[in-house]
Amino acid sequence: MTCQAKDCTIAIDIGTGSTRAALMGPDARVLALAVREYQQIVPAFGWSEQRPADWWAAAAAALREVTAAARAAGHRITAVSACGQMHGTVLVDDAGEAARATVPLWNDKRTLDYVHDFERRERVADWLALTANPPTPAWPAFKLQWLRDNDPEAWARTRTVMMPKDWVNLRLTGERAMDWTEAACSFLVDPATGDWSPRIFERLGLDIGRMPPIRLSTEILGRVTPGAAAETGLAEGTPVLCGGGDYPVALLGSGVCRPGLASEVAGTSAILTLVAEKPLLDPEISNVGTPEGNWGGFVLLESGGDAARWARRAFHGNALSYAQILDLAAEARAGAQSLFFLPYLVGERLGAHRNSRAQFFGLTARHGLPEMHRAVLEGVGFAVNRHLAVMERATGTRPEALIASGGGAKADLWLRIKASIYDRPILIPEEPECGLVGCAILSAVATGAARDVAEAAGRLVRHGREIRPDPAWAETYARMQPVFDRLYASAQGFYDDLDALDAAGTLPDTDRRPT
């Protein structure tokens, strides 16, 4: 039986752990997938780097595999669209080569002193309207300050600043640009104009002349060069889109592409996003540009799935599977017999309490491991719901449903708990590779196969399941949420005390023993 030849596109996802290339059918289904892994480099505590050369080598190898599969099946490739890990700040010289062999990634914390200095010198509230974002070590603005001060030789040779997927696009086409989704989340764009802000560059001591033009994700950036064709197996002249950041493109691939739609991406962290026409100006909310040109206000809970991972390790030494832990949690009633868990195991990304801690509250002799595991799952839900309430107040909207993606979208008990805490349905995309689907949607618009992003998403995104709230659970959780919120607020007075105790505890054991 032969497979009918199709007009297909290729999606590339340049992730933190690997690069994936996929042959996408006209219905945005994955027809072939190739993966090439690489490692993070950790030269010092809190640092996280990768080599742009590794991204390109991985992309070229994955593309060779996928294009070979396309040729074998007789499929035609009409466009290439990439998404990639955000905020990794690539310095590129005049010749189009990396001016620095390694790049600080999104999770690199070496810029923390720059952020603290900024917060001491500036009134952060005044900057929300200027940048649409509160300061955080992730933003490229602070990474550029560090690179300027600590690698002046590479900084002097830098002609263009790019993000990881922009670097791969440069190698494919020879063209330099940054798309709207990446630029809007850089702490360097004026949200009122959608362009680089001369005022911000001047205040931060950076050179606006090193920034590339900002283009839309659906625009065709350029075409595959002869050299790139030889390395990747792509046909010379194949159109290459500007693409976008992996997170906003995955939002699109899950169907979240209109104001009023909400998403929860549940992985190691939990990212809650609410799409709006304008950025949500609140010190607890960050904002990213979305591929269709809106804004995604988002809040990141650092310990989402990581809370369940911690409980598995702490209570069972990793001897139980996650399925067994969910079975344990299912033995407990909703509310875990009034046991609360605050899931701030690694602090918070924003605000005055980045040093926040986790805690159980309400433990009694009647509680056991089932209640503790259920409280962990519920605590993550309460924390996300607290963020959702902040975002709803900022927009004056209440989404009718949330669209869930990521690894956490496979845990049915946790989904039922969350749906009941949020008191609204949760929809699950049929295709879990939402970033690849998002790239296919962008290509559909660029090639004329769809009128616009919303039309393409409506046709190509399929939601396979709907998880509805349990009415009895929802009633229990509605009584518990205000208590969780009060616990969250009241615990903050102890975090500096715990830091002081930790500092005192760093003395050698011999110095702490009584004589």
Offer a few descriptive terms.
515 residues, alpha+beta, Nucleotidyltransferase, domain 5, 2 domains, 7-stranded mixed β-sheet, 5-stranded mixed β-sheet, globular, disordered C terminus
Please, could you describe this protein's structure?
The chain is of the alpha+beta class and 515 residues long. The chain has two domains: 7-242, 2-Layer Sandwich (Nucleotidyltransferase, domain 5); 254-504, 2-Layer Sandwich (Nucleotidyltransferase, domain 5), CATH 3.30.420.40. Helix content is 40%, strand content 20%. The protein contains 19 helices and 24 strands. Helix 14 packs across helix 17.
Any idea how many domains?
Answer: 2
**CATH topology category name of the largest domain:** Nucleotidyltransferase, domain 5
- Average the pLDDT over all residues and give the rounded result: 92
What's the CATH architecture name of the largest domain? 2-Layer Sandwich
End-to-end Cα distance = 84 Å
Low-pLDDT runs of 5+ residues are: 509-515
Share of residues in helices: 40-55%
| SS summary, helix count | 19
**Fourth-tier CATH superfamily name of the largest domain:** ATPase, nucleotide binding domain
Work out the strand percent: 15-25%
Look at the structure and give the CATH class of the largest domain. Alpha Beta
